[in-house]
């Protein structure tokens, strides 16, 4: 797989570059960030813009996560190092900033309205078909991002798409026909599938300790927070019927059914009373808040809680994370209580001890050993393997490959037809597929595939144009870096 990935690295980077949302909901996998120094340092300057270590670490984490999603269990730290993923992330970060600088020079802008329109289109952030701000913030928190950084990334993506649109080229009829014949060559092959789960390995104590020493910087504790908390339960305002009626008349547009229909006074009354109680209790909560700030009152309890276990809704978690050490946060309401929270201290992530990391170490080491054994087994069986014969397959023959799901079949066929080897092994996720090409033949031109072929040609042409543009921009904008990357 590493050879194929290196051969297609430029395509992979462009594909991942365009997508800013692919990581959301999937979580950060495997190895986290690539640590080049302390938080807030500068790793490069592109034109007038400083590029920080935080931006670089975030770029590496997203890139690692996206490669892992593309290639499944077969992608690991070793492959990331062989691909020099840290260099790719750094180069990609510089390219993004070059494109942004170029877009600014052209006078292209991205408005807040454009960002909002793009944001509400993502299904990942919707509940019952509508954009859900709480879900949005929660998903970003799970991926160690905040709305400001994500929306800035989205802004860059929209700007990139605007620049990319300047380079749209329509392929000619001859190009489409000739490329179609090449892409849809048909092969008769024999293949055999080996599975990672079928590999038997033993991870002993010495191997595990060695693995820990080599990789311990990737096994870190979560950031945690020392909090002091004051709670104030919802109190009754003992509102009169007139006060309830007045509040309803003033804010009746706030009281609706899910379909948007307004509630009558009687239908909304219970909620109106609760809202009046909340307003009443809030005044007392604000008084408590001021007393706590002056040191005239005490918090009810102290807790230390990990980032993923903060016991509040996403919007309030975000407020805690944005607070400074020793800051007391204004009262917020949830679960029929007002909470006043003091961020006493942020406890940074630290390397776990061997014993604390051991369970995760065993999982990762076992996966690593199985992956190596899968590769060895596949190579040992390749010469004389007996497998399943299938005739007349091309890039669109995913349904003919038994033992793989549709996504795996597509990936196998793409790699197969990109390879010049008659007999080899292709890694797809947790599987190794041995194959032997028995014969190949050209097929007649099929006009029904024109749209697919045009998309392929456009992608290649636009990729080449973008590559040439970046080379020009590298000479147009001054770039200073503090990271040395490996030359190809």
From TrEMBL:
Q: Where are the transmembrane segments?
A: 12-34
Entry-linked InterPro entries: PPIase_PpiC, PpiD_chaperone, Trigger_fact/SurA_dom_sf
Where, subcellularly, is it found?
A: Cell membrane
Q: Which GO terms describe its molecular function?
A: peptidyl-prolyl cis-trans isomerase activity
Q: Which domain of life is it from?
A: Bacteria
Topology term for the membrane: Single-pass type II membrane protein
What family does the database annotate? Belongs to the PpiD chaperone family.
Q: Sorted alphabetically, which PANTHER family does this protein's record hold?
A: PEPTIDYL-PROLYL CIS-TRANS ISOMERASE D (PTHR47529), PERIPLASMIC CHAPERONE PPID (PTHR47529:SF1)
**What's the protein here called?**
Peptidylprolyl isomerase
Which organism is this protein's natural source?
Aliarcobacter vitoriensis
């Amino acid at each position: 797989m590493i050879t194929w990935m290196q051969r297609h690295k430029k395509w992979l980077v462009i594909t991942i570059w365009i997508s800013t949302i692919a990581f959301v909901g999937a979580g950060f996998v495997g190895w986290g960030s690539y640590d080049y120094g302390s938080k807030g340092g500068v790793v490069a300057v592109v034109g007038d813009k400083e590029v920080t270590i935080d931006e670089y670490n975030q770029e590496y984490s997203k890139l690692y996560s996206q490669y892992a999603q593309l290639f499944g269990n077969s992608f690991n730290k070793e492959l990331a190092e062989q691909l020099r993923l840290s260099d790719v992330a750094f180069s990609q970060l510089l390219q993004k900033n070059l494109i942004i600088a170029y877009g600014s020079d052209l006078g292209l802008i991205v408005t807040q309205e454009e960002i909002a329109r793009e944001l509400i289109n993502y299904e990942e952030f919707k509940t019952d078909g509508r954009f859900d701000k709480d879900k949005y913030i929660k998903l970003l928190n799970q991926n160690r991002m905040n709305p400001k950084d994500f929306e800035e990334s989205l802004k860059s993506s929209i700007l990139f798409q605007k620049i990319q649109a300047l380079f749209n080229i329509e392929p000619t009829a001859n190009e489409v026909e000739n490329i179609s014949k090449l892409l849809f060559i048909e092969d008769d092959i024999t293949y055999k599938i080996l599975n990672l789960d079928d590999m038997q390995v033993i991870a002993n104590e010495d191997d595990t300790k060695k693995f820990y020493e080599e990789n311990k910087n990737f096994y870190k504790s979560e950031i945690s927070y020392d909090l002091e908390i004051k709670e104030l339960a919802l109190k009754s305002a003992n509102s009169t019927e007139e006060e309830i009626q007045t509040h309803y008349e003033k804010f009746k547009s706030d009281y609706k059914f899910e379909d948007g229909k307004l509630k009558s006074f009687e239908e909304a009354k219970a909620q109106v009373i609760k809202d009046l109680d909340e307003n009443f209790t809030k005044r007392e909560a604000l008084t408590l808040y001021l007393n706590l700030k002056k040191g005239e009152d005490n918090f009810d309890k102290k807790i230390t809680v990990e980032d993923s276990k903060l016991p509040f809704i996403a919007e309030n978690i975000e407020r805690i994370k944005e607070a400074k050490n020793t800051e007391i946060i204004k009262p917020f309401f949830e679960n029929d209580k007002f909470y006043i929270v003091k961020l006493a201290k942020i406890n940074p992530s630290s390397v776990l001890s061997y014993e604390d990391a051991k369970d995760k170490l065993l999982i990762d080491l076992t996966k690593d050993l199985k992956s190596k054994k899968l590769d060895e087994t596949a190579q040992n069986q390749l010469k004389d393997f007996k497998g399943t014969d299938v005739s007349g397959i091309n890039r669109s023959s995913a349904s003919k490959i038994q033992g793989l799901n549709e996504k795996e079949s597509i990936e196998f066929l793409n790699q197969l037809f990109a390879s010049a080897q008659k007999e080899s092994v292709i890694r797809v996720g947790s599987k190794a597929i041995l194959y032997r090409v028995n014969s190949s033949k050209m097929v007649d031109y099929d006009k029904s595939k024109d749209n697919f072929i045009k998309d392929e040609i456009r992608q290649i042409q636009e990729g080449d144009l973008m590559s040439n543009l970046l080379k020009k921009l590298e000479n147009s904008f001054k770039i200073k870096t503090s990271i040395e990357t490996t030359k190809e």
